[in-house]
Amino acid sequence: MTVAAIRQQLHQFIEVASNKDIEAVYQYIAASDMDMPQTNTVNSKNDKWEDSAFFAEMERRASAFENGAETGYSWEEVKTKARKLNK
To answer: Against a cut of 0.70, is the pTM above it?
Structure first.
């Protein structure tokens, strides 16, 4: 499929896609290495690191983990559990 055909299909998709689908596609593209405009509403409303409550919760969790109050999982443990849940 040519790039022009892909662009045309994407434009058609955008015209009929739900807001949720549009935001998901945009987040995927924004997370890639592509240069995206900085004046978008999707990224700005979902920028958790600008949310003081979210940041405070992450700090609380990190502190609890470091102090031994909460346990964590290794990346291998997470992947193994995810694979078991996916079966």
So the answer is: no
